[in-house]
Amino acid sequence: MKQVQLRPTERIDDLLTYDLKIIQSDEVFSFSLDAVLLGRFCSVAPKGRMIDLCTGNGVVPLLLTTRTRAEIWGVEIQERLADMAVRNAEINGLEERLHMLQGDLKTIHETLGHGQFDVVTVNPPYLPVPNGEQNANEHFAAARHEIYCNLEDVIAASAKLVKAGGKVAMVHRATRIIDICCLMRQYRLEPKRIRYVHARAGEEAMMVLIEGMKDGKPEIRTLPPLIVYDDNQEYCKELKEIYYGGRSSLEFS
After folding, report:
1. What pTM did the predictor assign?
2. pLDDT, tens digit, for every residue of 9-57?
3. Are the beta carbons of 209 and 189 closer than 8 angstroms?
4. Which of 121, 149, 143 is nearest to 210 (CA)?
Protein backbone atom coordinates (compact mmCIF):
# COMPACT_ATOMS: atom_id res chain seq x y z
CA MET A 1 0.00 0.00 0.00
CA LYS A 2 1.37 3.40 -0.99
CA GLN A 3 1.56 6.14 1.61
CA VAL A 4 -0.70 9.15 1.09
CA GLN A 5 -1.50 12.10 3.30
CA LEU A 6 -4.71 11.79 5.30
CA ARG A 7 -6.80 14.77 6.35
CA PRO A 8 -8.03 15.12 9.93
CA THR A 9 -10.93 12.65 10.59
CA GLU A 10 -9.90 10.44 7.66
CA ARG A 11 -9.09 6.75 8.09
CA ILE A 12 -8.09 3.85 5.85
CA ASP A 13 -10.58 0.98 5.74
CA ASP A 14 -10.28 -2.48 4.22
CA LEU A 15 -12.58 -3.13 1.26
CA LEU A 16 -12.45 -6.85 2.18
CA THR A 17 -11.74 -7.94 -1.38
CA TYR A 18 -8.45 -8.31 -3.26
CA ASP A 19 -6.59 -6.43 -0.49
CA LEU A 20 -8.04 -3.11 -1.62
CA LYS A 21 -7.97 -0.17 0.80
CA ILE A 22 -10.19 2.90 0.87
CA ILE A 23 -9.92 6.30 2.55
CA GLN A 24 -13.12 7.29 4.35
CA SER A 25 -14.31 9.85 6.87
CA ASP A 26 -17.34 10.20 9.09
CA GLU A 27 -17.64 13.77 7.80
CA VAL A 28 -18.66 12.57 4.34
CA PHE A 29 -21.02 9.89 3.08
CA SER A 30 -19.28 6.49 3.16
CA PHE A 31 -19.88 3.85 0.51
CA SER A 32 -22.71 1.40 1.09
CA LEU A 33 -24.06 -1.93 -0.12
CA ASP A 34 -25.54 -0.17 -3.17
CA ALA A 35 -22.11 0.62 -4.60
CA VAL A 36 -20.77 -2.87 -3.93
CA LEU A 37 -23.72 -4.48 -5.71
CA LEU A 38 -23.39 -2.13 -8.68
CA GLY A 39 -19.70 -2.93 -8.99
CA ARG A 40 -20.50 -6.63 -9.32
CA PHE A 41 -23.72 -6.39 -11.34
CA CYS A 42 -22.61 -4.21 -14.24
CA SER A 43 -21.18 -5.57 -17.45
CA VAL A 44 -17.48 -4.89 -17.90
CA ALA A 45 -15.30 -4.12 -20.87
CA PRO A 46 -12.38 -6.61 -20.81
CA LYS A 47 -10.09 -3.75 -21.86
CA GLY A 48 -11.67 -0.61 -23.32
CA ARG A 49 -12.92 2.36 -21.30
CA MET A 50 -15.41 2.59 -18.44
CA ILE A 51 -16.72 5.55 -16.46
CA ASP A 52 -18.45 5.85 -13.08
CA LEU A 53 -20.64 8.91 -12.47
CA CYS A 54 -21.42 10.20 -8.96
CA THR A 55 -18.31 8.26 -7.99
CA GLY A 56 -17.97 9.69 -4.46
CA ASN A 57 -14.67 8.49 -3.01
CA GLY A 58 -14.17 6.15 -5.96
CA VAL A 59 -15.37 2.86 -4.50
CA VAL A 60 -17.04 1.54 -7.68
CA PRO A 61 -13.96 2.13 -9.89
CA LEU A 62 -11.82 0.42 -7.25
CA LEU A 63 -14.09 -2.62 -7.25
CA LEU A 64 -14.20 -2.70 -11.04
CA THR A 65 -10.41 -3.10 -11.20
CA THR A 66 -10.90 -6.61 -9.81
CA ARG A 67 -13.03 -7.57 -12.83
CA THR A 68 -11.42 -5.85 -15.82
CA ARG A 69 -8.20 -4.43 -17.22
CA ALA A 70 -10.08 -1.50 -18.76
CA GLU A 71 -9.13 2.09 -18.03
CA ILE A 72 -11.70 3.57 -15.67
CA TRP A 73 -12.75 7.16 -15.10
CA GLY A 74 -14.63 8.46 -12.08
CA VAL A 75 -16.53 11.76 -12.01
CA GLU A 76 -17.52 13.50 -8.76
CA ILE A 77 -18.78 17.05 -8.38
CA GLN A 78 -17.80 17.54 -4.71
CA GLU A 79 -14.18 18.62 -4.32
CA ARG A 80 -13.67 16.83 -0.98
CA LEU A 81 -14.84 13.49 -2.34
CA ALA A 82 -13.06 13.84 -5.67
CA ASP A 83 -9.81 14.42 -3.78
CA MET A 84 -10.43 11.27 -1.73
CA ALA A 85 -11.05 9.33 -4.95
CA VAL A 86 -7.70 10.47 -6.37
CA ARG A 87 -5.89 9.38 -3.22
CA ASN A 88 -7.79 6.07 -3.13
CA ALA A 89 -6.40 5.27 -6.55
CA GLU A 90 -2.93 6.19 -5.31
CA ILE A 91 -2.90 4.12 -2.12
CA ASN A 92 -3.86 1.04 -4.14
CA GLY A 93 -1.23 1.70 -6.81
CA LEU A 94 -3.93 2.12 -9.45
CA GLU A 95 -3.38 5.74 -10.48
CA GLU A 96 -2.31 4.70 -14.02
CA ARG A 97 -5.66 2.91 -14.60
CA LEU A 98 -8.05 5.04 -12.56
CA HIS A 99 -8.64 8.63 -13.63
CA MET A 100 -10.60 10.50 -10.96
CA LEU A 101 -12.00 13.87 -12.01
CA GLN A 102 -13.87 16.62 -10.25
CA GLY A 103 -16.65 17.73 -12.54
CA ASP A 104 -20.34 18.02 -13.26
CA LEU A 105 -21.80 14.95 -14.98
CA LYS A 106 -24.14 17.22 -16.96
CA THR A 107 -21.19 18.77 -18.83
CA ILE A 108 -18.40 16.19 -18.50
CA HIS A 109 -19.01 15.00 -22.10
CA GLU A 110 -17.61 18.36 -23.22
CA THR A 111 -14.27 17.30 -21.74
CA LEU A 112 -14.33 13.53 -22.30
CA GLY A 113 -16.28 13.43 -25.57
CA HIS A 114 -19.47 11.83 -26.84
CA GLY A 115 -19.70 8.05 -27.17
CA GLN A 116 -16.23 7.35 -25.80
CA PHE A 117 -17.06 4.68 -23.20
CA ASP A 118 -17.96 1.00 -23.39
CA VAL A 119 -19.68 0.99 -19.98
CA VAL A 120 -21.15 3.69 -17.74
CA THR A 121 -22.01 2.98 -14.10
CA VAL A 122 -23.82 5.27 -11.70
CA ASN A 123 -25.09 5.20 -8.11
CA PRO A 124 -26.98 8.52 -8.09
CA PRO A 125 -28.70 10.35 -5.25
CA TYR A 126 -32.11 8.77 -4.74
CA LEU A 127 -34.34 11.44 -3.21
CA PRO A 128 -35.86 14.69 -4.49
CA VAL A 129 -34.67 17.84 -2.71
CA PRO A 130 -36.99 18.21 0.31
CA ASN A 131 -38.99 21.32 1.06
CA GLY A 132 -37.80 23.07 4.19
CA GLU A 133 -34.93 21.85 6.35
CA GLN A 134 -32.18 19.74 4.77
CA ASN A 135 -29.29 17.82 6.26
CA ALA A 136 -26.82 20.33 7.67
CA ASN A 137 -23.91 18.25 6.36
CA GLU A 138 -23.56 19.24 2.70
CA HIS A 139 -21.84 15.96 1.78
CA PHE A 140 -24.60 13.80 3.25
CA ALA A 141 -27.27 16.01 1.70
CA ALA A 142 -25.73 15.78 -1.79
CA ALA A 143 -25.29 12.01 -1.56
CA ARG A 144 -28.94 11.44 -0.65
CA HIS A 145 -30.80 14.20 -2.48
CA GLU A 146 -30.90 15.41 -6.08
CA ILE A 147 -29.11 18.68 -5.32
CA TYR A 148 -26.56 18.62 -8.14
CA CYS A 149 -28.42 16.34 -10.56
CA ASN A 150 -31.75 14.56 -10.93
CA LEU A 151 -32.58 11.21 -12.50
CA GLU A 152 -33.05 12.64 -15.98
CA ASP A 153 -29.71 14.48 -15.76
CA VAL A 154 -28.00 11.19 -14.86
CA ILE A 155 -29.56 9.20 -17.70
CA ALA A 156 -29.03 11.96 -20.26
CA ALA A 157 -25.35 12.23 -19.28
CA SER A 158 -24.90 8.48 -19.44
CA ALA A 159 -26.43 8.37 -22.93
CA LYS A 160 -24.00 11.03 -24.15
CA LEU A 161 -20.94 9.23 -22.79
CA VAL A 162 -21.66 5.62 -23.82
CA LYS A 163 -20.97 4.36 -27.33
CA ALA A 164 -23.57 2.61 -29.50
CA GLY A 165 -23.96 -0.93 -28.21
CA GLY A 166 -22.36 0.03 -24.90
CA LYS A 167 -23.95 -0.54 -21.49
CA VAL A 168 -25.25 1.78 -18.75
CA ALA A 169 -25.76 0.22 -15.30
CA MET A 170 -27.48 1.88 -12.35
CA VAL A 171 -28.55 1.11 -8.81
CA HIS A 172 -31.54 3.00 -7.45
CA ARG A 173 -34.60 2.69 -5.26
CA ALA A 174 -36.99 0.05 -6.56
CA THR A 175 -39.87 2.53 -6.36
CA ARG A 176 -38.29 4.56 -9.21
CA ILE A 177 -38.20 1.69 -11.72
CA ILE A 178 -40.90 3.10 -14.04
CA ASP A 179 -39.20 6.50 -14.14
CA ILE A 180 -35.85 4.83 -14.85
CA CYS A 181 -37.16 2.66 -17.71
CA CYS A 182 -39.10 5.51 -19.32
CA LEU A 183 -36.13 7.86 -19.20
CA MET A 184 -33.76 5.18 -20.47
CA ARG A 185 -35.91 4.65 -23.55
CA GLN A 186 -36.27 8.39 -24.04
CA TYR A 187 -32.47 8.62 -24.28
CA ARG A 188 -32.07 5.48 -26.45
CA LEU A 189 -30.87 3.25 -23.62
CA GLU A 190 -32.88 0.03 -23.95
CA PRO A 191 -33.29 -1.77 -20.58
CA LYS A 192 -31.75 -5.23 -20.94
CA ARG A 193 -31.17 -6.67 -17.43
CA ILE A 194 -32.90 -6.03 -14.13
CA ARG A 195 -32.52 -7.45 -10.64
CA TYR A 196 -34.41 -6.51 -7.50
CA VAL A 197 -32.71 -6.43 -4.09
CA HIS A 198 -34.73 -7.42 -1.00
CA ALA A 199 -33.60 -7.00 2.61
CA ARG A 200 -35.23 -10.31 3.57
CA ALA A 201 -37.22 -13.05 1.86
CA GLY A 202 -40.91 -12.16 1.76
CA GLU A 203 -40.31 -8.40 1.88
CA GLU A 204 -40.82 -6.00 -1.00
CA ALA A 205 -37.79 -4.86 -2.99
CA MET A 206 -35.80 -1.97 -1.57
CA MET A 207 -33.36 -1.47 -4.45
CA VAL A 208 -33.12 -2.28 -8.13
CA LEU A 209 -30.10 -2.95 -10.32
CA ILE A 210 -30.74 -2.20 -13.97
CA GLU A 211 -28.61 -2.15 -17.11
CA GLY A 212 -29.47 -0.76 -20.51
CA MET A 213 -27.79 -0.87 -23.92
CA LYS A 214 -27.36 2.16 -26.17
CA ASP A 215 -29.56 1.62 -29.24
CA GLY A 216 -30.33 -1.95 -28.15
CA LYS A 217 -33.33 -3.97 -29.32
CA PRO A 218 -36.32 -4.31 -26.95
CA GLU A 219 -35.94 -7.32 -24.65
CA ILE A 220 -35.28 -7.44 -20.92
CA ARG A 221 -34.10 -10.24 -18.66
CA THR A 222 -35.44 -10.26 -15.11
CA LEU A 223 -32.84 -11.97 -12.92
CA PRO A 224 -33.54 -13.86 -9.68
CA PRO A 225 -34.07 -11.60 -6.65
CA LEU A 226 -31.13 -10.91 -4.38
CA ILE A 227 -31.92 -11.44 -0.69
CA VAL A 228 -29.53 -9.56 1.60
CA TYR A 229 -30.14 -11.20 5.01
CA ASP A 230 -30.82 -14.85 5.84
CA ASP A 231 -33.00 -16.18 8.67
CA ASN A 232 -30.17 -15.59 11.16
CA GLN A 233 -29.99 -11.88 10.21
CA GLU A 234 -26.57 -12.44 8.65
CA TYR A 235 -25.55 -11.64 5.08
CA CYS A 236 -26.67 -14.43 2.77
CA LYS A 237 -24.08 -16.64 1.08
CA GLU A 238 -24.14 -14.62 -2.13
CA LEU A 239 -23.50 -11.34 -0.30
CA LYS A 240 -20.55 -12.87 1.54
CA GLU A 241 -19.12 -14.01 -1.79
CA ILE A 242 -19.58 -10.52 -3.20
CA TYR A 243 -17.82 -8.83 -0.28
CA TYR A 244 -14.97 -11.30 -0.16
CA GLY A 245 -14.36 -11.44 -3.89
CA GLY A 246 -16.01 -14.69 -4.96
CA ARG A 247 -17.89 -14.94 -8.25
CA SER A 248 -21.65 -14.52 -7.88
CA SER A 249 -24.74 -14.68 -10.02
CA LEU A 250 -24.69 -10.87 -10.08
CA GLU A 251 -22.05 -11.16 -12.77
CA PHE A 252 -22.91 -11.89 -16.38
CA SER A 253 -20.52 -11.76 -19.30
Report:
1. 0.91
2. 999 999 877 789 999 998 887 788 999 999 999 999 889 999 999 999 9
3. no
4. 121
